[in-house]
Amino acid sequence: MKNKNTIYNLILIGIGFLITVIVYNKLPNQIPTHWNISGEIDKYSSKLFGSFLLPSIMLLVWIGMLLTPKIDPKKNNYSKFDKSYNVIINVTLTFLFILHICVLGVSLDYNIEINRVIPFMLGILLIVIGNYLPKSKTNFFYGIKTPWTLTNEDTWKKTHRLGGKLFVLSGLVIIISSLFFTRNLQFTVVIISILVAGIIPIIASYFYSKNNI
C-alpha cells in the first residue's frame, strides 16, 4: 500500500511540474495567485514563481507529511492508522494538483469559475478527512490536538468521532453552496462551515475530558 501511495504521489507531483514546463512559454508574464470573494483576481505573481508555486508546495507537503511520523514523539501510533493517513496525503496532493491546473487554465484564458471549483474541491477534501479522522490515534501533528485529547485516548476518540461528522457535514454544505449559492453567500457559508467544524470539537474535547475524570 505504501508503495502504491508513493507512486501515485510522485506521478501527481511529476505531472504538475511537467505540465508547467510544457505550457510555460505560452503563459503570460503575470500569473494569478489569489481571488477575492467575488471570484475576481486580485493578486498576481511573476511567471516563474506563480507557475511553479503549487507543484513546489505539493512536493514540500508530501515530504513534510512523510517525515512527520518519524519525528512525532508518538510516532508508534502512526502504524495504527497508516492507511487513513496515506489517504489524507493523497487527497491533499490531489486538491493542490487540481488547484494548480485551474491556475494554469485561468492564466491561459480558459473560462474556469475558480470560485466554484475550489469550494467544491474543498468540500470533497473535508468529507474525505471527516471519514478518516475518527480512525486516527493520538499524535502531535495530525488531527484535533488539544491538551485534553493528547492526554486521554478516550477523549481523543470521542472528539474525533464528533469532528469527523462535522467535517463531513461542513463538506456537504460547502459543495452545495459552490453549486447553487451566489459568490458572497458562498464565501460566508464556507467560512462558517470551517469555523463550526474546527471550533466545536475543540470545545467538546474539554467537556469530554471532564466527564472522563
Automatic annotation (TrEMBL):
The chain crosses the membrane at residues 7-24, 44-67, 87-108, 114-133, 162-181, 187-208. InterPro entries: DUF1648, SdpI, SdpI/YhfL. Pfam families: DUF1648, SdpI. The keyword DNA repair does not apply. Residues 11-59 form the DUF1648 domain. Keywords: Membrane, Transmembrane, Transmembrane helix. PANTHER family: IMMUNITY PROTEIN SDPI (PTHR37810:SF5). This is SdpI family protein. It comes from Clostridium weizhouense.
